[in-house]
Amino acid sequence: MNQDPRVSIILATYNERENICATVQDIFQHVSDSVEVIVVDDDSPDNTWLVANSLEDRRVKVIRRIGTRGLATAFNRGIIESRGEIVGWMDADMSMPPRLLPQMIEKLKDYDIVIGSRYVEGAKDDRHYLRVYASWLINRFAGIVHGYGIRDYDSGFVALRRKVFDKVSIIPTGYGAYFMEFLYTCRKKGLTVYEVPYVFKDRTTGISKTSASLFRFLKIGVQ
């Protein structure tokens, strides 16, 4: 493992063998600082954890969870295992661009938390129009309920200072709801949040866990 990495990026995976190597390598390419990548895999049937291990890179730590599943709990486990002064997490399906990470990390000089946002000026959600509209409705409703001017409450693409966890912890339940609650509590505690625009693209390989059907996608949204 890296000795005292400055940045820790967490990837929660389940059946991402087609994307995991490209995602990890893209992170290393764009984050020039000392960085570690923590892959938390829920014992994927496609052996994602084994593919990640095959990278044989000392900067990569693979955690294979057996008998435990869930996005929020996976990120929470990764946070516990992380060592960087800066901690971030993102999807492992190449829908969120690692090239945005340096800009997000740079903004941490002025803010406590920086999120990749699909709904600020210069951003775009470039997926099927039904998913775009459903996500927009979810975030619009969350913005009305929670306030604080945050546009992308369920972004799930974030970089923050470790000291944030002195005030706020992730509640490891749910899919997108954990992130909404996390951001809301951060703002309630007086922590600052900045949104960086990016283009959110649909995965080109693998199967989405949230949109196997429109019904499942909307059910998660309602939750």
Question: How would you describe this protein?
Answer:
This protein is an alpha/beta fold. The protein has one domain (about 5-220): Spore Coat Polysaccharide Biosynthesis Protein SpsA, Chain A (Alpha-Beta Complex). It has seven helices and nine strands. The protein has helices at about 20-30, 50-55, 70-80, 100-105, 130-145, 175-190, 215-220; strands spanning about 5-15, 35-40, 60-65, 85-90, 115, 125, 160, 195, 200. The strands form two sheets. A seven-stranded mixed β-sheet has the order 3-2-1-4-7-5-8, with helices on both faces. Helix 5 (about 130-145) packs parallel to helix 7. The radius of gyration is 16 Å and the shape is globular. The model has no long low-confidence stretch (mean pLDDT about 90).
List keywords for this structure.
Spore Coat Polysaccharide Biosynthesis Protein SpsA, Chain A; 7-stranded mixed sheet; alpha/beta; globular; 223 residues; single chain
Question: How are the SSEs ordered, and which strands pair?
Answer:
Layout: E1 7-13, H1 20-30, E2 35-41, H2 48-53, E3 60-64, H3 71-81, E4 86-90, H4 101-107, E5 113-117, E6 124-126, H5 129-146, E7 158-161, H6 177-188, E8 193-197, E9 199-201, H7 214-222
Parallel strand pairs: 1-2, 1-4, 2-3, 5-8, 6-9
Antiparallel strand pairs: 4-7, 5-7
Helix pairs in contact: 5-7
What would you say about this model in short?
The protein has 223 residues and is of the alpha/beta class.
